[in-house]
UniProtKB/TrEMBL annotation:
Keyword set includes Metal-binding: no
Signal sequence, renumbered to the chain: 1-19
PANTHER family with a match to the protein in the record: PROTEIN TOLB HOMOLOG
Keywords: Signal
Pfam families, A to Z: PD40 (PF07676)
UniProt name for this protein: WD40-like Beta Propeller Repeat
Listed InterPro entries: 6-blade_b-propeller_TolB-like (IPR011042), WD40 (IPR011659)
Taxonomic path: Bacteria, Pseudomonadati, Bacteroidota, Bacteroidia, Bacteroidales
Organism encoding this protein: Xylanibacter ruminicola (Prevotella ruminicola)
Family: Belongs to the TolB family.
Length: 482
């Protein structure tokens, strides 16, 4: 065994003592709250969320010393290059302070000097998520070319992420829209494009593959939404095209030369078509069933002369009655948000599962909102008819692709608010008056490092009540043989 050089050891210890020690003695007070990443100051969180680890935003800070105390009791501590809380201790503290708040004390070291910041609070909601986790697609932020992409699931109480299916297992083809029925992983659908394209329907423990392109529909089966009974699934069928902007703050424009909405009967394996949702000269899109199954929401716009006039196409929000027993569409269409009145366009209607609200995205024109910086979330109160922007969560960049928890007290959405390039996942809560809380970024073990290195966008996210059980290799083989 080699002897340790005495003087080398003394030199090393001297350096460690002279650097930012993690038991600060001489601390300068700063009369402001710390600038941290992610910004978790003043957010409301559920008891079942993973630790809100964070770093100082300024990279010149080398160490932090953080104490978190519960208003009802209990405390935890983290120290190091970033605040990395123990998962079990974190959840114990949150459970002990459900319906109360946490007080966070931060000291940070820069150039050998320690600074003490004003404390900030984190509210612990009395309303849990009641969901195991989330599902989503991750894709490079370009719809012109794509390489690696996949469908993933993530446990929300810790940082565990697993792959459900990656496009390397389906010959590099594009995959989209993993959609569950009210967060139930036993019933889902997703779409694979390309030579071996298929719409994969999973229910009753079995996978059924439907032809991706249906000539009788005039296009592929996309943008699905399940009927709460599980018997039906609404789809749009879209002929999609792209073009690219130069000289403004938009990059890619996605539009449909035509689109319609239809319902698929999963028991009879029949397509239910109706002229009210498949009209000539109009483009119906982005369907969604009401939580009681009695209404089918969709958006519609007069077809444009593409590509000319693409920025004049504006979608209204409509609904039509649906009879679960007969599978028939009603006889009249109600317009809930009229684009002719607002001068704006509606996309991605998503009703809360308690039937109180309908959240949608509003943008200047079109429906493909992820590349529209002006796209914001709006909330329609289905009981009062009051319609308003969700200013509590909106930013100056695109907000879109949202979904609810089963208890309708939480929702997630994607946003490009950080850099305008990558969509990230955010969460917010809704109180009994429909007011949303300050959104918080999806927690990661080391969030600053993770998001700085992640070169992919989150897409089509949803909640899942328990983990989705998939066999990616077997699924790839089924799609290849189809």
């Amino acid at each position: 065994m080699k002897k340790i050089n005495k003087w080398a050891l003394i030199t090393l210890l001297s350096f460690l003592v002279s650097a930012c020690g993690l038991h600060p003695d001489h601390v300068q007070m700063v009369n402001q709250q710390p600038d941290i990443y992610p910004d978790y100051i003043g957010v409301m969180i559920p008891v079942d969320i993973a630790p809100l680890n964070f770093s100082m935003t300024d990279d010149d800070f080398t160490d932090v010393y953080v104490d978190v105390k519960g208003e009802k009791g209990g405390s935890i501590h983290a120290e190091g290059t970033y605040a990395d809380f123990d998962v079990d201790e974190w959840h114990q503290l949150l459970k002990a302070n459900k319906g109360s708040r946490l007080l966070v004390s931060v000291m940070a070291c820069r150039e050998g000097n320690w600074y003490q910041y004003r404390d900030f609070s984190i509210e612990v909601s009395p309303n849990p998520l009641d969901e195991w986790g989330i599902t989503y697609r991750r894709i490079a932020p370009s719809y012109a070319l794509y390489g690696h992409m996949g469908l993933y699931q993530r446990c929300l109480s810790d940082f565990t992420e697993t792959s459900m299916l990656e496009n390397s297992q389906v010959h590099g083809q594009c995959m989209n829209c993993h959609t569950q029925n009210r967060t139930n992983p036993e019933q889902y659908v997703f779409h694979v494009r390309g030579e071996h394209g298929a719409t994969v329907v999973h229910q009753h423990g079995k996978d059924v593959l439907l032809k991706a392109r249906n000539d009788s529909l005039g296009g592929t089966m996309v943008y699905p939404y399940w009927h709460p009974s599980g018997r039906y699934c609404a789809f749009s069928t879209n002929k999609t095209a792209q073009m690219f902007h130069t000289g403004n703050n938009k990059r890619i424009e996605v539009f449909d030369t035509s689109s319609d909405v239809f319902v698929y009967d999963m028991e009879k394996h029949e397509v239910i078509k109706d002229t009210l949702i498949m009209t000539t000269g109009w483009a119906e899109n982005t369907p969604a069933f009401s939580p009681d199954g009695k209404w089918l929401y969709f958006t519609t716009a007069r077809c444009g002369n593409y590509p000319k006039g693409y920025d004049q196409v504006k979608y209204s929000l409509c609904r039509v009655a649906f009879d679960e027993k007969s599978g028939k569409i009603g006889t009249e269409v109600d317009t809930l948000v009229n684009a002719g009145v607002t001068g704006k366009s509606v996309t991605w209607p998503r009703p809360s599962y308690d039937g109180k609200y309908l959240m949608y995205t509003q943008l200047d024109y079109g429906y493909f909102s992820v590349w529209h910086p002006e796209a914001d979330l709006y909330m329609l109160d289905l009981e009062t008819g009051v319609n308003r922007p969700l200013n509590e969560v909106n930013s100056t960049r695109s907000e879109s692709l949202h979904n609810w928890t089963r208890n309708s007290r939480w929702f997630l959405f994607t946003s490009r608010r950080e850099d305008g390039l990558y969509t990230r996942l955010y969460f917010s809560s809704v109180d009994e008056h429909g007011k949303a809380t300050k959104p918080f970024l999806l927690p990661q073990q080391n969030p600053k490092e993770y998001y700085q290195r992640l070169m992919y966008s989150y897409n089509t996210p949803d909640f899942t009540s328990v983990p989705v059980k998939t066999n990616a290799r077997e699924m790839g083989r089924k799609i290849e043989r189809f």
